Magnesium-transporting ATPase, P-type 1
Amino acid sequence: MDRTIGRDGAAARPPPPPADPPVTPGEPALRHWAGADAFALLRGLESARRGLCEDTAALRLHAHGDNATDAVRRPGAAVWARRALAGPFSGLMTVLGVLLAVAGSPGSATLVLVVAALGVGLRLWHAARSDRLSRELRAHAATTVTVRRRPAPGTAPRDSEVPPEDLVPGDVVLLGAGDPVPADARLLHARDLLVDQSSLSGELLPVTKAPPSSREPRPAPRRRPSRAGTDDRPLTALPALLFAGSTVVRGTATAVVLATGAHTHTEELAGRGRRPRPESEVDRGLRSVRRALVRCMLLAAPLVLLVNVEVSGDVRQALLFAVVVTVGLAPELLPLIVGTTLLRGAARLRESGVLVTRPEAIHDLGSIDVACLDKTGTLTEDRVVFTHSVDVDGRPDPAPADAAAVAVRFQTTPRDGLDDAVSAADRDGSALLAHGLLTRVEELPFDHSRRRSAMVLRDAHDPGELVIVRGDPDTVLPRCTRVARDGGAVELTASLRTAAADAAAGHRATGLRVVAVATRRTPLLRPLGAGDDDDPERDLLLLGFVGMVDPVRESAARAVERFAEQGVAVKVLTGDDTAVAEQVCARAGIAVTGVLDGTGLDALNDVALARAVARTTLFTRLGPLQKERVVAALQARGHTVGFLGDGLNDVGALRIADVGIGVDGAVPAARAAADIVLADRSPDVVVSAVEEGRRTLGRATRYLTVTAALNVGNALSVLVASAVLPFLPLLPAQLLLQGVLFGVAALSLSFDRVEPGWTARPRRWDTRGMLWCMAVLGPLASAFDLVTFWAVWRFLGLDTPQEQAVFQAVWFMEGVLSQVLVLLLLRTRAGRAARPVVATVSAVVLAGLAVPFTPLAPLFGMAAPPPAVWPLLAAVVLPFLSCVAATRPLYLRHVLGIRAADPRQEKERIR
């Protein structure tokens, strides 16, 4: 039968806790209860090992509220509406609609407001669709937790399943392998307990948890007493505490709940993801665009008003002229165009497994110049695999791996990642063969203080028992007296012991996780008691070492190369060990120019850290606040930062990064804080998302720069016309219809190709390029408008108020034709336009030329011009397009920032 073998060592009982427990929930209370003995703990929580009474639990549930630990909450309709109305130009278009109504043009006012409503509606639709997809991603099966309660005082306790939401402080919960930890709790009893708390601490492997006990001391080297006499290790390093969001991997536990709901450590970390998001690069760019356009409006509108009042003396007409100039300067369909390009970009990203939860993040993706990646699960595959098995001299030897695989084969406790990796080392089927010859007698599971495990097996053919020990070389080597060498067993001398320790240290230095394997043949062991000298883990024969590694993803190296090609620097932020992280970076092709660990980071102030991040590639042993500081320091240096994370320790950094990137398997709070969610953890997906972000930003930038320049030309033309014409050159409704037709043509840009040079480096909303385009193309367009005026007066004789409807129709046709063709001419240098672009532009040109000849003309105040208008349009538009073509190289260089390249190379890079 199985025997239970106690853990080694003993420790003094921890000092008694203070008489008064901390009243403030949070970290001080958790630290206080972590070191308290069970009696003081239960007395302070007014609970008992038999659990709470049902009535007491109900009262506490009413007082503390539900144990709602999921930080992901669905926003209401009011929140969606506020986000949609907060668009950059929604308020501007509303003001223009009101001004048009005041100026006596209700039809034009209605049209402006309808266009603004379309942009708001598009944003609302996308927000609702993203929310639905997000809820589908985070949908999971409902769970329950086993809680021990009493129906009434004096009755026997009973264990029952309740929803996690019904837990209250003081509840006694029972946990087993596979159970999620539903709340922050202090262990009362544990057996072979192994907990995965990687989402909180970033540790790859599960950790051992145990209550304070005289038989389970805390390792002295890891204890760092503070001045107050308390343990100042990170909360997650305290072995007596369990945290909401972690999972039991192995063993069983009985624990008392310390905190629920918003008071848990998990919610404290998750709450950092609900802080207001700082202004992003795109937010700053759009704000600068708004300011530039508003400045132009504030300058032009009063000037037109004063000039027209001085010339005509008609205040109402002067006001209408001023409104026309304002409408001419406003990019009416900017919200709709930007929204459409974002939707198109989101659709393309969704096809590659990327869900966009914040549409504007697509443009921010195009601006990223620093990508902060986690090591575990991003550069690596988030699993441990067997690499090799060697003897103490470092020579390949299958014996250590085979022995370890046999032990795992007979293991009854749930396996962890290291066990699975060791099992995979069984290449020749020796474990299967041994299964028929050996039977399990005893199992000593891995223990946090012992840092090793042992399996006692009985051989059917040989007398006695076989003991297989595997674990940390630092704990296995001291128990070895012999070593397997050259086919035999020799004494483990001091020199051999030193050589073996050096070999293990050398493997660790290369980033490997090393397990020492030793065996012992013994007579039949008898059941042991405390202090028994017949220890099966003594006088061991050291076989050698088994090496394991967290493998680097196949796509990692290529992703790093593509990031370099895109001008994106890669920074690695991890909670893992420095040596392991350095080796992962080396295998992934990341040149480590500097390393900074969490301790060194805490010693730097913000100014010093901002200098340090410029020369540092690898940040190790980081906690949640330290990751935030690294991201903030990079932003302080002017970088646009993308941060990829999946744990609660990443929530704060995800929130403050310009683009927070989560993964499908991330904790709910991390998915809620992220701007985009990846279905695949591979960094290659992030690279593709950055490229798509740049293409999407490029399409919106082309529309904005060309529109702003042409609108400046319209405003200049109206300004000159207001001084010489006895009537409006264009009515507000006509100018708005012209802008709508131009916007419809611009909508097709979301389907167009983008100049390959555009995606070669990070892109931002560059107001300087837009101002350059306005300064060059605007006056050029206005000059040809004035040529149109002169030609209409000179050759068509349309110079009286009675003929203004025909005059306006001619200028309307010329404006639609020239503006749409200019957009097509300046759209890109990426070869032939896509079919949707050609089809849309052709339809818009035909519609614009046909409107004055349709029954719709009177509705917009136009009349059909004479046939002579066609040669006049050709004589004006063709030279204008030739002049624009001459300025095109300057546009590419100064506005788009694209240098001339070999056309053959560009053709090969075109998608």
Observations:
- The two ends are 69 Å apart (CA to CA).
- The first strand starts at residue 52 and ends at 53.
- The longest helix spans residues 683-724.
- The chain has 32 helices and 24 strands.
